[in-house]
């Protein structure tokens, strides 16, 4: 009898191996890159110069036409089917962050996101853009020093 009780206690103390039910919301549906660009009329030593291709795209828009464009930082994040994620291209005392979460299912070349722009703990912008593959969305951000911050959000891939 003592052996049966010991065996039962041993079996009850073993961890229960449950079926591994993966959370479908954790499935990665794509990759997103968020970049911060400092645009100003005067030369700055901050960051590195943006590519000629990006500069040409920015100059096509009147409100984004500045003399100089410098890349301050970028952050690449996976997009999960049902979760909110944060991209922080520059980490500082009052970082500029972008939160994003899919709205509905991804299409073959696009995805709609719930996108919010934050400066520290203050929400600056909320929008629901439909991003196209390899076509960045440029957002004119807050004034900074003698210029403006431009936030670039680009859908790099979809799965």
Strand content: over 45%
How far do the termini sit from each other? Answer: 58 Å
General form = globular
Helix percent reads 10-25%
The low-pLDDT segments are: 14-20
Structural class: mainly beta
- In DSSP terms (H or I, runs of 4 or more residues), the helix count works out at 2
Physical arrangement of strands within the biggest beta sheet: 2-3-1-10-9
Order of helices and strands: HEEHEEEEEEEE
Tally the structural domains.
Answer: 1
Describe the structure.
- By secondary structure, the protein is mostly beta strands.
- The chain has one domain.
- 13% of the residues lie in helices and 50% in strands.
- Strands 2-3-1-10-9 form a five-stranded antiparallel β-sheet, with no helix packed on it. Strands 4, 5, 6, 7 and 8 form a five-stranded antiparallel β-sheet that branches.
- β6 and β7 form a beta hairpin.
- The longest helix has 12 residues.
- The protein is globular.
- The chain starts with a helix and ends with a strand.
- 19% of the residues are buried.
